[in-house]
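Hi all, long-time lurker, first post. I run a small reading group and we've been trying to get comfortable going from sequence to structure in the token notation. Rather than ask abstract questions, I figured I'd post a concrete chain and ask someone more experienced to write out its structure so we can walk through it together at our next meeting. Sequence below, copied exactly:
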Amino acid sequence: QVQLVESGGGLVQAGGSLRLSCAADGVIFSSDPMGWYRQAPGKQRELVALISSDGTSYNSTNYADSVKGRFTISRPGARNSVSLQMSSLKPEDTAVYYCYTRNGWTAKDYWGQGTQVTVSS
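-- Answer (accepted) --
Happy to help. Here is the structure in token form:
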């Protein structure tokens, strides 16, 4: 069983920056992808960014087109954590952001409780 705990959300003006962090309590393998999804009011949950390892380093990343060049995902230090550096934030980035991972053996998905990001215009 894996528990994911997010931190770092909040209110920021357009053009500002925020950093989200997620720590996993449980067994996470370096090959398991970790990342972030978001859900805005009235919309479906969507992928923001994912990061995984090719066995040597965490160099496989996948970003939504809407955040490319503005957001950077990383797995600093321990393999059971993931961060999302968000810059040049826009009002349309307003959403609840969820930390995510999938166990490579069982294919079970795990989600954090979510952290609110609000970008004012």
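A couple of things your group might point at:
The chain has no helices and eleven strands.
The two ends are 40 Å apart (CA to CA).
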